[in-house]
Batch of 2 targets.
Target 1
Amino acid sequence: DEDEIAAAIGENVNKDKNTAIMIWVGILLDAIPESLVIGFIVSEGTRNPLVFVVGVFLSNFPEAMASGATMKTVGLATWKIMALWTGTCIVTGIGAMIGAAIIPDTGL
């Protein structure tokens, strides 16, 4: 029946949307310690933080692409997707600032 098919598709869309959001939440939570470490490295001033930042970006990029694409596929508005990822960038920046601020002047 068409009603059963529509119900099954609706269930899958909700599951996919939840999956995409949970991947995003995981990346957001993962960004907190990573951003603190970026702040530590920048504050210490003896290492090149760009290497670590590029490594973090490359390791998170596939998850972010999968999450963003799934969000778009299940009908989440583009502005909402952009707001979620912009929020992640802001949290990461704040975390790096905190990481840099909590390192004593003598370093680690």
Target 2
Amino acid sequence: KGCMNLQEYFRLPSVSRLVVSFRWMDQGWGIRKGRLGLSIHRDSKAIIHHSFTEPNHPAPLHLEDRVYDVPCSILQFCRPNDEIVIWRYAGGGSSHILSVLFFQARYWPGT
């Protein structure tokens, strides 16, 4: 759902562990839709999309700090030549806003 509207932040090589931290908020009014997450790409095609939040818990209405350790059950699918794409999803429509500040990714190379 919404995969066509994912906006790429950056790419990482295949990893064995990934911990991200950020400060974020949805636009502050209306329906909350904002999400951050990752996709694992193999041969230029996404094989997995994974959100850093639960489906019914999008970005909050007020600034919130978050630390997320990507589960091994997701990263186990990484192979040596795969890429991890970190993405944002602001929501449907052209006027929805998702604010993300101080994004950091700590990662350990894959084996």
